[in-house]
Amino acid sequence: DAKTTQPPSMDCAEGRAANLPCNHSTISGNEYVYWYRQIHSQGPQYIIHGLKNNETNEMASLIITEDRKSSTLILPHATLRDTAVYYCIVRYDTGRRALTFGSGTRLQVQP
Amino acid sequence: GAGVSQSPRYKVAKRGQDVALRCDPISGHVSLFWYQQALGQGPEFLTYFQNEAQLDKSGLPSDRFFAERPEGSVSTLKIQRTQQEDSAVYLCASSPDKPGLDEQYFGPGTRLTVT
C-alpha cells in the first residue's frame, strides 16, 4: 500500500470548516483513499473513501486532486466532538485487507 | 448494541503470564481483524480472518501471539508469556467484506498493561 504523509497536528475553530490534507504521491491507479478518525480512548471510526471522484457523506467531504497524488478531508462545520486523530490510508479494494495506519493528524477543535 | 465488543476492557498481567482477549464482531460480518496500538502511535495490523480461516497473520510479532476464530464469529487473541513490550491497546475490527461495503468497524479495544 502507498505511503501517506499528513501534518502531525492542526487547530480549527468550532463552527468553521476543517480541511485536513494528505499526500500520497506514490498511489497507484487501483488504490482507494480512506479516512478514519480515532477519538480519545475509542477505536478508529470510518469516515469516507474514494477512488477518483470527490465524495460526500453525512460526516465529511473528500476532495481528491486530478493526479490523485493528494487529497483533502473537509469537515464542513467542526464541533468539539470532532477533536480526534485523523488517519489517511490508501489501499487496494482487493488483495490485502488490512489497513496500514500512519501517525495521522491530531485535530484540535477550539471553542 | 450492535457494535463490535471486546473484553476485558482493561487487563493487567505480570510478566510471564498468559492472557486471552476476546472480540465479539458485528453479527454476520465475514472479516475480522486484530490490531495492536502502542501509546501515541497508529494501530498496527496483527492478523485477519475470513470466517474461520486465518488468511493473514503476517503482523503477529512473535510465536507467543496466537489468534483463533473457530466458528467464524467470536475471536480470541492469546498472548503467552507476556513481556513488557506487549503493553498496548489491542483493537478488534469486523467488516461485511462486500463490494462497496468493506469499511472496518472497530471495537473500543483492550488495554493490556504488563508489569
Question: Could you walk me through the main structural features you see in this protein, from its secondary elements to its overall organization?
Answer:
The complex is a heterodimer of chains A (111) and B (115). With 111 residues, chain A is mainly beta. Helix content of chain A is 0%, strand content 47%. Chain A has no helices and 9 strands. In chain A, the strands form 2 sheets. Chain A has a 5-stranded mixed β-sheet, with no helix packed on it. A 4-stranded antiparallel β-sheet of chain A has the order 2-7-6-5, with no helix packed on it. In chain A, a hairpin with a 4-residue loop joins β5 and β6. Chain B has 115 residues and is mostly beta strands. In chain B, strands 2, 4, 5, 6, 9, 10 and 11 form a 7-stranded mixed β-sheet that branches. Chain B has a 4-stranded antiparallel β-sheet with strand order 1-3-8-7, with no helix packed on it. Classes of the chains: A mainly beta (111), B mainly beta (115). Chains A and B meet through β4 of A and β4, β5, β9 and β10 of B.
Would you kindly provide a brief summary of this structure?
Chain A is mostly beta strands. Chain A contains no helices and nine strands. In chain A, the strands form two sheets. Chain A has a five-stranded mixed β-sheet with strand order 1-9-8-3-4, with no helix packed on it. In chain A, strands 2-7-6-5 form a four-stranded antiparallel β-sheet, with no helix packed on it.
